[in-house]
């Protein structure tokens, strides 16, 4: 086996996503498993270079995990020819400029979503990347969740017949920050800092709907800022200017209708933090992050509406769990997508979760906000480079 080092500049690793999912659960996890076996006698060995604004935090993180290199100078890191890939999990508002520089420096790009704060910027990044001939990928982690993988298996196996509708319920209570610390960063609740649940979640809904059920052709959304005042990381009150809930309806190519509630102001009375119910002519399924249960038409009970009688059975018990059927279990979705991206870079394997796919997510968020502001249903035009 030959070991090939791949140097990855990781910008934004001090953040929630950058640290936990990308550094620890993906890149360091690949190192712990001995690298990524490319199957051609080569093992890829990822070497992260931590990039950020606060030197002492980067240094402490590097020491904790035995990482040799870190820097607060992004330009210097990008000028380093030994760096192969630029990864970005900074706050959304800082992303576009940094990726632009990294493309100009000839690095391959892997990035969190949303790729930019507007469609024009997102498309421009995709065009620049194509012109530069670099490889590029955008995180679309939900596709690699066990629950959604099981749902995809059901679709591929023809379980549903004709798919009629999808109901998504996403959300949980994010504390305001006064009497209990908020569990999400405060910039998420300020639109001037790139926050808002539409910008955060519609990019996810775009690729989930598109890949599983059909391209989104129209969007109609109503957003709300239910909690107008919150408390930040320094316990200071601030005006929450961004939407903290969005109620969206999406028409899909092929005729299915999706309705997805996204909310940081809802208390969970579900099995998982996100659940999608899919109803088809032959059967229905409810998929969450990890689990998926089904009800076939042959075992569908016949409820009769009668409010005078108490329900005699539990409707939930009439569903059947979809098995994992995966001997070694499901790996972390972020890591799975990183591995596919590294194979794309080094083996040229196909990879369609790219900056153009990322731009579709930004487009849906932009149109969702416009739809809410105008009180209209909007077409979602197909975009291309
Ligand atoms: N794929 C997913 O499921 C998922 C989930 C949550 C967030 N995200 C995305 O990941 C990105 C980071 O989100 P997060 O929740 O980790 O945020 P976070 O606030 O925890 O981290 C932000 C990172 O950006 C850095 N940063 C750079 N410039 C900054 C600036 N001007 N102000 C503040 N911080 C700055 C911070 O130091 C930190 O490392 C966002 O773009 C978000 O949309 C993706």
TrEMBL record:
Residues 149-285 form the GFO/IDH/MocA-like oxidoreductase domain. Transmembrane segments: none annotated. Gene3D superfamilies: Dihydrodipicolinate Reductase, domain 2, NAD(P)-binding Rossmann-like Domain. Residues 50-133 form the Gfo/Idh/MocA-like oxidoreductase N-terminal domain. Coiled coil: none annotated. One of its GO terms (molecular function) is nucleotide binding. This is Gfo/Idh/MocA family oxidoreductase. It comes from Streptomyces beijiangensis.
